[in-house]
Amino acid sequence: MDVTITVNGTERKLELDPRVTLLDALRHELGLTGTKKGCDHGQCGACTILVNGRRINSCLALAASHDGDEITTIEGLGTPENMHPLQTAFVTHDGYQCGYCTPGQIMSAEAMLREAAEGWPSYVSKTLDADPTLTDEEIAERMSGNLCRCSAYPRIREAIAAVRDARNATKEAAE
Amino acid sequence: MRPFDYARADTTSDAATRAAAGATFLAGGTNLLDLMKLEVMAPEALVDVTRLDLHEVEATDESGLRIGALVTNSDLANHATVRAHYPVLSRALLSGATVQLRNKATTGGNLLQRTRCPYFYDTAAACNKRDPGTGCAAMEGRNRILAVLGASDHCIATHPSDMAVAMRALGARVVTEGPDGGRELDLGDLYRLPGDTPNIETVLSDGELITAVILPPPPAGAQSYVKVRDRASYAFALVSVAGVVAVEDGRITSANLAFGGLAPMPWRNEAVETALIGKAPSTETFDAAADILLADAKGHGDNDFKIPLARRTLRRALRELCERAA
């Protein structure tokens, strides 16, 4: 069946079996292998991408069901020549060991920072009516959909906190 | 995954017609696709309902809330009215799954998600829910997460939803449309207990689509969702309590309680609530309510611990609610 999706700003027309997930369409049809297949069941978060600005597990999404949607993958976030601040922070803070979960961690973290900026609460937020402060505990809860088998969690949280601080500083300077 | 035909529904009647002819509804798909990959479910056709106009959260004429069936779990948890007036629902939603899953999962789909019983998922195991008449491997097996209330000799699966537990405590109603028209029913009446047909989980007929959930006006009193689980995040409830409790002059004046992790459906027992009305909050009062809740509780070995855990979780939820409501 015909499916048209916009991936990292470029419209892509695909002819797919209805069974093809967004993850497999990205990796096998479009050659965008930055998005990783971990568990393939929505448990590990390695396949996290943004669809219309929101993070989802691309392994649990049929491409057919996302006809017309806008998709951002790790390739659309940064390049080796022009890294995204989270990519730089993961390098600086050593936020990985094997690196397999890293693209998913970074896609998830970018979405998480945007969600917090929009005022989304989490399960560990003390109140539901105030803008959340991204404490270490908040970052851990909000990133619980991304597993790291090497258990680099302390450094992953450090890297995310560094970008949080940089964005807060930019925001304060603008105010 | 087995091959299937895919069609996108433009109208609810189109969706209902296709489903009545055998297609399975696809909304967020986070549970369905998981089960299809494992071939626990193998529908020959999917009807994608995600483009239907069921994405709105609106105030009702009765000052309640009408939640479209396709509102995502994230959008519902973050909705300003839900956060301000139905915090038990926000908290329950935020306690479930991960942001990635909540961004996809829908209100209707959450209600209809399948059990996470390990034997339902294991196609080599006996399971009366997946394959009627084959038996239940969970009875003598690893049943740590399974039911102690409302189960049968044929199935001890639990309903895994957190959202539905909060909605049950709030007295939610479910709106459907189907080939024979629409109806509105209490959320508690949506589900069927397993009995000897655990494969039939709801009263919905073929082609009947959940289109909305209606919440009554916000209730008086304090609200909370207490969830106990095996790890701090991203785990299903072993026991959960959704509570709405009001206290006046040192006496409990209303109590609405629903329980997750214990039963094949979001569990509510009005006798538990009645036992609390007019009483002063105390451990004895809370224990008397727990006695009623757990009178018919039955463990199967691994899950025996859930019975005392449910008592302690109810005690904690009521103590905190009564303190906040006083």
From TrEMBL, chain A:
Q: What is its EC number?
A: 1.2.99.7
MF terms (GO), sorted A to Z: 2 iron, 2 sulfur cluster binding; aldehyde dehydrogenase (FAD-independent) activity; metal ion binding
Q: Which SUPFAM superfamilies match?
A: 2Fe-2S ferredoxin-like, CO dehydrogenase ISP C-domain like
Superkingdom in the source lineage: Bacteria
Pfam families, sorted = Fer2, Fer2_2
Residues in domain 2Fe-2S ferredoxin-type?
1-77
Top enzyme category: oxidoreductase
Which Gene3D superfamilies is this protein grouped with? 3.10.20.30, [2Fe-2S]-binding domain
Q: Which keywords annotate this record?
A: 2Fe-2S, Iron, Iron-sulfur, Metal-binding, Oxidoreductase
Q: What is this protein called?
A: Aldehyde oxidoreductase
Q: What is the lineage of its organism?
A: Bacteria, Pseudomonadati, Pseudomonadota, Alphaproteobacteria, Rhodobacterales
Q: Which gene encodes it?
A: mop
UniProtKB/TrEMBL annotation, chain B:
UniProt cross-references to InterPro entries, sorted A to Z: CO_DH_flav_C, CO_DH_flav_C_dom_sf, Diverse_Substr_Oxidored, FAD-bd_PCMH, FAD-bd_PCMH-like_sf, FAD-bd_PCMH_sub1, FAD-bd_PCMH_sub2, Mopterin_DH_FAD-bd
Any idea of its EC number?
A: 1.3.7.9
FAD-binding PCMH-type domain residues are 1-220
Annotated Gene Ontology MF terms?
FAD binding; oxidoreductase activity
Q: Which PROSITE patterns match?
A: FAD_PCMH (PS51387)
Keywords in alphabetical order, please.
FAD, Flavoprotein, Oxidoreductase
Q: Does the keyword Flavoprotein apply?
A: yes
Q: State the protein's name.
A: 4-hydroxybenzoyl-CoA reductase subunit beta
Species assigned in the record? Jannaschia seosinensis
Which gene codes for it?
A: hcrB
